[in-house]
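notes to self, project folder thing:

trying the whole complex as one job this time. last attempt i did each chain seperately and stitching them together was a nightmare. two parts in total, labels are on each line so i dont mix them up again. if this works i'll redo the older ones the same way
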Amino acid sequence: GAVVSQHPSRVICKSGTSVKIECRSLDFQATTMFWYRQFPKQSLMLMATSNEGSKATYEQGVEKDKFLINHASLTLSTLTVTSAHPEDSSFYICSATKGQGAGANVLTFGAGSRLTVL
Amino acid sequence: AQTVTQSQPEMSVQEAETVTLSCTYDTSENNYYLFWYKQPPSRQMILVIRQEAYKQQNATENRFSVNFQKAAKSFSLKISDSQLGDTAMYFCAFMKHSSGSRLTFGEGTQLTVNP
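result (full assembly):
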């Protein structure tokens, strides 16, 4: 089956530093990847849609200069939280899809990354 | 814009019993997909079941089945013979056919299965 690997699973950083989270599709080519943010006991909030080879599409209210997304290959998307502050502490989840044909409605999720900013 | 509503923030059920989680949605689309995802304490999102709107037959996956009422825009999940491992947050989700795989999630229902 389709597998998505997300790394790191946990990261602690100091305020003002930048943190990169990777999302890799291990056994399929992901034309589209999505990044979500989840606060405790709440639903997943879509941050941005990442398409291979093009700029990410950000949801309203999400700062694109704060959350840099790169989708340089069909198997890797990265989310970089720049100049992190304590309010950026959250659980970040990625998902990936083949995006074509029967695979278009099938999303595979990464295991998530817990970011703590001190 | 689509909205998904789960009106039950928390539910509990005894092991081996049956429980139904509610979900309603609002859309003007005719072609779409509906999903139930499970998020256990590990936080890994797991697909439980998927329904295509053009199919009248309710989807079933082992102990999990849905009651899809398109006219009422209702999509409930029934879990039969509940097991302790079913304890998780359950999210109902909507995907428009032409949305590029973009999901809209409900608020979630925390299900606890008691021994």
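what i see at first glance: The radius of gyration of chain B is 14 Å.
need to look closer tmrw
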